Amino acid sequence: MNLRDISLGRHAPSIINVVIEAPKGSRKKYRYHAKSRKFRLAYEFSMPVPTEYGWIPETVAEDGHFLNAMVIARNASHPGYICEARPIGVLKRKDRDHHVICVMLGDERYTSVKDISDLDVKLLKKIVQFFEPYFELSGWLNHAETVKVITDAHEAYIASPKLRGTKARIDDDSEDDKTAEGFNENLEEASVAAVNAEWADHDDRGEEEDADSDN
What we know:
Layout: E1 16-22, E2 28-33, E3 38-44, E4 52-56, E5 67-72, E6 82-93, E7 99-104, H1 121-131, E8 137-141, H2 143-159, H3 164-171, H4 173-179, E9 189-191, H5 192-198, H6 207-214
Parallel strand pairs: 5-7
Antiparallel strand pairs: 1-4, 1-6, 2-3, 3-9, 4-5, 6-7, 6-8
């Protein structure tokens, strides 16, 4: 299956699909290449990702790329994992490469979380601290504003599905060079199956962090 064929989601924008590139707790950021249907290790973060990290299919954001998504989940998944998530807010960046904040659908701990303001302050700080050494941030958007961001991005995709920016987010190596600035770049290729195997024993990695944040 080509991951570029994934839909936004049957119940979008209230529930959306997210394709994971960097699992929670990982320092590795993979980039999916549609032609080969493989992931390439684009670069390494200086600190572990505090949430699941990926892209929202069938969207074109303000900067011409797919919308980014941070999915709050109990356990780590693997690159290429497709999850259903509820968007609750947006972390804005001054370069317009914004990040939609979501909670994993079906996680009972976050059933009552409807808006970014409902999240624990410690978790919000972790997300901010992950990005602030590298990018200028410009605040948060609430749930209602987030729905509009996703809707507008999906409409932009429908209006111009062959827009180059739609391809660039996952196919263009120049994006790796741009984003990897300040990170430890380390390129390699891996099939989806190989990457999944690498993360097969990774499911419980997030448990200790969750326990710490709950205390």
